[in-house]
């Protein structure tokens, strides 16, 4: 089902770029005390999980975006909001994103769902009667939706929320090579290259350091790094297999997808049609909001992070107006 969002942007943050950039520059969130726990994976690698103190409420797993971490503005914001609502939060760092390179040559990517599957299975074994929900942002949202479609009736969680998802990875890569969106591409590419270069200092990778210096687009990075490290023949092969749009019809978990038509990381052609959604999926579309922005306001200069409130409302199945 596709519904129209009630979100209205702050008038002083009307553009998609303002919505996208403002929180990363100006949002400051004090995180609750966190405990880091390392989860050993079946293949000998690891992921790090950051936990809030346990509460009596639901357990919520958060998945970050490309090169994100616990300090990412969207992660810290929603984590703090949900913890104050008596939920126990588990923040999952994808391989190599917790401040330490992972042990194996393989990396995380937009379609890597085996780690999520293992983390959910571990949480379910440790908390067999606990309600579990998952939130995924951007790349993490793509991973979440793909996993939900793969698992179908076997997902064994109660609710899911995906925000600003690049439903078609190839199209998103194209858009990030155009106009002002190239600024986001350069930022993300620089972070990816730093991560790979750090990893190359401690292990041999089937990558030529000279080739890395020539990369100027995310598509080129995926073709040179992501694909060969993770068993794909090319960037297009990776995009084709891992785009979440093709998995939406198989989802059987109550799922809310929040998306803005002006998201500068993609265009409106990637937005799924009603016929592509299972009965368990609600796609909430707004005209504005940028990429993981969704900032409203009652008065200048007090921003309201509407996204956090909407996620809390859905997870609690509350009737509050946001």
Low-confidence runs of at least 5 consecutive residues: none
Calculate the terminal CA-CA distance, rounded to whole Å.
19 Å
Helix content: 25-40%
How much of the sequence is in beta strands? 15-25%
Total beta-strand segments = 11
Broad structural category: alpha/beta
Overall mean pLDDT score?
Answer: 96
Trace the largest sheet across and list its strands: 1-9-8-7-6-4-5-3-2
C-alpha geometry: globular
Structure summary:
With 322 residues, this protein is α/β, with parallel strands linked by helices.
Notable traits:
single chain; 322 residues; alpha/beta; nine-stranded mixed sheet; two-stranded antiparallel ribbon; 10 helices
Structure description:
The protein has ten helices and eleven strands. With 322 residues, the protein is an alpha/beta fold. The protein has a nine-stranded mixed beta sheet, with helices on both faces. A two-stranded antiparallel ribbon has the order 10-11. The chain starts with a strand and ends in a 6-residue tail after the last helix.
Give a topology summary.
Elements (H helix, E strand, L loop, with lengths): L1 E3 L11 H11 L8 E6 L5 E6 L7 E5 L9 H12 L3 E5 L21 H13 L5 E6 L1 H13 L7 E5 L5 H7 L5 H20 L8 H5 L4 H12 L5 H8 L12 E6 L20 E6 L8 E5 L2 E4 H11 L6
Parallel strand pairs: 1-9, 4-5, 4-6, 6-7, 7-8, 8-9
Antiparallel strand pairs: 2-3, 3-5, 10-11
Helix pairs in contact: 2-10, 8-9
């Amino acid at each position: 089902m596709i519904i129209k969002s009630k979100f209205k942007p702050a008038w002083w943050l009307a553009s998609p770029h303002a919505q996208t950039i403002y929180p990363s520059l100006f949002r400051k969130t004090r995180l609750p005390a966190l405990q880091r726990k390392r989860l050993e994976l079946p293949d000998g690698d690891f992921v790090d999980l950051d936990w809030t103190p346990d509460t009596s409420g639901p357990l919520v797993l958060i998945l970050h975006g490309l090169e994100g971490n616990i300090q990412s503005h969207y992660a810290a914001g929603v984590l703090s909001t949900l913890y104050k609502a008596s939920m126990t939060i588990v923040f999952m760092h994808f391989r190599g994103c917790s401040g330490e390179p992972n042990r194996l040559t393989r990396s995380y990517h937009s379609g890597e769902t085996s780690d999520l599957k293992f983390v959910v299975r571990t949480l379910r074994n440790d908390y067999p009667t606990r309600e579990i929900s998952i939130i995924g942002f951007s790349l993490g949202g793509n991973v979440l939706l793909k996993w939900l479609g793969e698992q179908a009736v076997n997902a064994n969680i109660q609710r899911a929320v995906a925000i600003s998802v690049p439903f078609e990875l190839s199209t998103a890569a194209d858009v990030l090579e155009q106009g002002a969106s190239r600024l986001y591409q350069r930022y993300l590419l620089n972070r990816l290259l730093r991560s790979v270069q750090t990893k190359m200092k401690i292990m041999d990778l089937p990558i030529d350091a000279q080739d890395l210096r020539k990369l100027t687009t995310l598509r080129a990075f995926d073709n040179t790094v992501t694909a060969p490290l993770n068993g794909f023949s090319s960037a297009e092969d990776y995009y084709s297999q891992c785009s979440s749009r093709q998995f939406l019809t198989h989802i059987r978990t109550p799922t809310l997808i929040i998306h803005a038509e002006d998201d500068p990381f993609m265009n409106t052609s990637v937005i799924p049609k009603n016929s592509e959604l299972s009965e368990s999926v609600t796609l909430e579309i707004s005209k504005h909001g940028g990429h993981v922005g969704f900032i409203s306001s009652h008065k200048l200069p007090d921003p309201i992070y509407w996204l956090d409130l909407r996620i809390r409302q859905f997870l609690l199945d509350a009737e509050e107006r946001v």
